[in-house]
Queue: 4 jobs
Job 1
Amino acid sequence: MHIDARNIENNSIIEGDICIVGSGAAGISAALEFLNTPYKVILLEGGGFEYEKQMQDLYKGKTTGQRYYPLESARLHYFGGTTGHWSGFCSTFDAIDFKEREWVPHSGWPITREDLDPYYPRAHKNLDLGPYEYDVKYWQGKDPELKSLPFDGDAVYNKMWQFSKPTRFGTKYRDTIVKAPNIHLYTYANVTDITANENASAVTQVTVKNLAGKQHTVKAKQFIIACCSIQNARLLLASNKQMPKGLGNQHDNVGRYFMEHLEIKSAELWLAKPDVLKLYHWEWEITKARAELAISEKMQRKYKILNGTASLTPLDIAKNQPAFIDMWTADTAQTKKNFAKLDQANKDGAKKEGHRSYQLFTRLEQAPNPNSRVTLDVEKDALGVPRAMLHWELTPLEKHSLRGIYKIIGEQIGITNGGRVRLMDYLRDENDNTWPEFTGGGWHHMGTTRMAADPTKGVVDANCKVHGIANLYMAGASCYATAAAPNPTLTLVALTIRLADHIKRKVKAV
């Protein structure tokens, strides 16, 4: 069922069993888990079914610290959310990503990789991925031309990625959600405030507003906030009538530990002879699976580095490509043109005989840093909510890790006489912790309502429930305690399905 919140009577009271705020990958995945159940689900979307500039304006904000993308373009504000410009990259987290690592401050989750294992295959279905297989040998069995570089797997291994179509949740799941008798989708219903009971131990209702001047109240027994990492934190911080620092923020953790993936060109690989390196090749909307070079847990521990992967692009193509940080603009149409031009350049530059030189491009997890954070600005949006301010701050560990990754890769390729690795200039001085102008992120927002068993160290518990509030849950990558190397979408969908299962058990037991 679909209701446009602009067209119902002002100050309406909307009631249900479960209220989900946000209809991106997390919000829709949560709603799908309650299809055909006895529970009335209220799914709130701030925008409509298509991109609208005035809705995007609600996501405007300021950035400080490390150079970053315009906030209003980094997330899409309509049904389907940011899956509208998702590239479809998917891979699982590694076991080490969940562990406490003594060289990574604030690392460690209250769950393990094994806790997510049952949910990854279910997430595959939502994302239209292939078989739940991330073993390089499986894919090589499908195509003998997927030959590996000659690395020692105990040091450098091939981490496999699968690629979604990419699935646009707003297109694929629109009819399913709208036709579901127990799911009530309200569009143009922006949540502007969360209200708890007198001692703030449970949420009683949320307030929704829209640009048509309407305001409504939504009441439910369970609330799931699935807006995205920046907006999740913004909403908790702005809901400060009862708790001056914001809901769930007794220990000043909401908004802190904002993490991105550093996505940055880092080195060159020069091979002894040309090679197409088909195993490592990616072509937009064609490639089903490929490998990136990854560092084993053993070597991460030995060199005390963060987790990261290296992808390979022919150097004569890569050297003419602008940095991603310069391609992503506040003009969504122009951004699409920039990436279409990049994709065409990749196709035009391909050589059947292969290439001898490749650019090594790194996707590196960011160390959890409490100074990297989301706060509220004094300026408010058109609905009266303080705008978000993002301070993105890196640490010396990121640059140390980049050097470590290519030291290991360089040593391993050198041992085989298969080639050599050449570091880019900005990585050569081990005492230099500055970052070049072309440093960028992957548009992967994580960590602002981080998971921790100890309420003083995080915002949500192992079930994504806000500490101290019985019926308030956060969904999505904002719950990540560390970022890992892969893009966050596959894992956030798996984590959301796990959250939905937890709520099913909880409401059934009542």
Note: The radius of gyration is 23 Å.
Job 2
Amino acid sequence: MHVKIVEVGPRDGLQNEKEIVPTEVKIALIEKLAASGLTTIEATSFVNPRWIPQLADAEEVLARLPRGKDVTYTALVPNLRGLERAVSSGLQEIALFMSASQTHNQKNINKTIEETFPVLREVAQAAHSYGMRVRGYVSTVFGCPYEGDVPVDNSRRVTQALLEMGVHEISLGDTIGVATPKQVRHIFGELVKEASAERLAAHFHDTRGTGLANVVAALDVGIRIFDSSIGGLGGCPYAPGAAGNISTEDLVYLLHGMDIDTGVDLERLMEAGAYIQQQLGRELPSKVLKAHLAADDCAKQGDA
């Protein structure tokens, strides 16, 4: 069995950092992630820099990244202006985003769900005219910080709308980290009726410590694409209290332990995690990274 990992740390992770991360650090991190064998990396966002100043250097980051056949770089695009920037940056794939809950969508995008559909449809059509692939994100599928439980019919309706726009892959997000394995099996079990499992991805946060358990539950119902963030970086500025995404290191360790292929070299991946942890100057949530660095420290002390 093979699982595709979509690395979202450079965008979803770093966008929440209070201190601006230097462009050179972002580029070095992405290069290290690519060197580990990750083939899809969400590098940045073309959301207006006034809203996410951390990613104001999107064009420069993409201009300086080496391009090759082995890695696809993507970026979040909110509207036609963002798409123009993505096209100018030479991207072959973009990502659209919206929420399954009305209140979160309103606070995140400043539009109702119904008002969001025509905007995304216009962007998707334009992107396809440029020969670009389009991915979709649906937030708050498993719970909303403002509304609580989100009916599965909300996610079904949004998923169907995105499919009709020609989105090739839809990432369903547990934005505030409330999902449990039982809920994951139920919701994905329902949504695979609308789209084949091959077109659905899981995007889990680990706020309540259930992130990896939810990965196993999603595997059980046929999901083979997972979003994760190096070191467990991330959160959501519109979801109070939301912890980071599941860690890429933890995800790869889990999958390899289940004899599932990812194409990722865990040792090189941990080099990327150690690098960004050092650059940010604080310990990151990844448990596998912590164990790896602790073992290294012990070995160094033993050699001393």
Note: The chain has a mean pLDDT of 94.
Job 3
Amino acid sequence: MNAKRPLIAVLTGAGISTDSGIPDYRGPNGLWQRDPSAQDLVTVGPYLADPDVRRRAWLLRRDAGSLTAEPNAGHRALVELERSGLPMRVLTQNVDGLQQRAGLTPRKVLELHGTAQEVQCVDCRTVGTMAGALERVAAGEPDPACRDCGGILRPRTVMFGEALDRTVLQQADTVARSCDLFVAVGTSLQVFPVAGLPLEAVRSGARLVIVNGEPTPLDEAAAEVVREPISTALPALVRRLVEQYG
């Protein structure tokens, strides 16, 4: 990299949040490894078609603890990166909101897969809080419906089987094409179109660093691959970047 202050793009996946107690999907101890049928709970077709799938999905959300999870050292490291003054943007596949809760400026975070902090009716599009919906589940409603029209409630996330919001994806592509350094953290880099963002960055001249516990399909394209735990590896990487460019 040059001695200039680089624009840093950080793509975060589920792996950055596992130390906060939120399981990933595809990792060795991921949700789908333990229960392959759980994929239906986050896939739009089965979710909308099957009340039993929705009931299981609400129990999963209730037990996942994402609303009460606390940011970990990986999230806090990215806050330190922002505070250093280095230009940066976070592109996240996560829906847990932990990066913002850690203190990162919300406008610096592009949520590629939406947010699990809110729910929306599939019919009338009314928006409510996930906390409120889970309170109804705890009170005995196994599949809470929209209180305005009786429609199905779903999280405001991009579920499997759905396309990403075109505007959000275009914004992410612009960041990838304009950055000098692209850091992929805790993501399998297997789900497109998001998995294509690091390649767009490399084609545009950026340096790619991958921090992930398992091999990814893009490891050969990376200038550096780090296999250490994210909660230690990411703070160390941020310290190195701040010392070099801050």
Note: The mean pLDDT is 92.
Job 4
Amino acid sequence: MTSSDLWDEATASRYDDDSAMFSAEVLGPTVDVLAELAGDGAALEFALGTGRVAVPLLDRGVPVTGIELSQPMVDVLRTKVDAGRLPVTVGDMATTRVPGQFSLVYLVFNTLGNLRTQAEQVACFRNAARHLAPGGHFVIELWVPGIRQMPPGQTAVPFEVSPEHTGFDTYDLVTQQGTSHHYTRVDGETYRYGTTNFRYVWPAECDLMAQLAGLEPAARWADWSRAEFTADSPSHVSVWRMPVSGVVGDG
């Protein structure tokens, strides 16, 4: 049993409405990096969703397989591409296995945090390693927790304030649990409120999880344009490599 929130049919039906996620400025650099890392091999996407990244990567000539927890999200994907071209297994990304080895396993858009226990997050890294061919890469895109912005006693940090959407995160600094709160304008007059839950992870903690999985660090950037990652970066794209020996840590 996974601790992840489960995207239902209503959520899946409007997931693609966020046009910013699908813009060329966002997807172009993302797909460029992933296609380069995949090389002549195949890619496996954890939490593939409706195929926002997988479909354009597939269009670039990279064979893609997916693991996705939500059947309604897969149903939306199937309106874009059939199972013969982009196979997907419904299951959680911490434990679900698919056949074959891959030159690239990737997990984008902060989705690692959907696993709300440290044990599951460690298991996710190990599951990625089990699917990697020697020399293959595991890539994650993840935000850096915004708790540096909070004065003592504050528990919430806004991440977007606009006429169409207001969002803020609340943090429990003891458990590393958090909740994203979304107020989205629906028809110009009313708002829809929704939440998603997560466990936040620091970049250094990700490196330790990778080490436990037998992976070695390869790169860390602030974003998909490969800008330098600094102490002030609000997010990171991190890459680890399976050693050519192919030894995976199961400890």
Note: DSSP finds six helices and eleven strands in the chain.
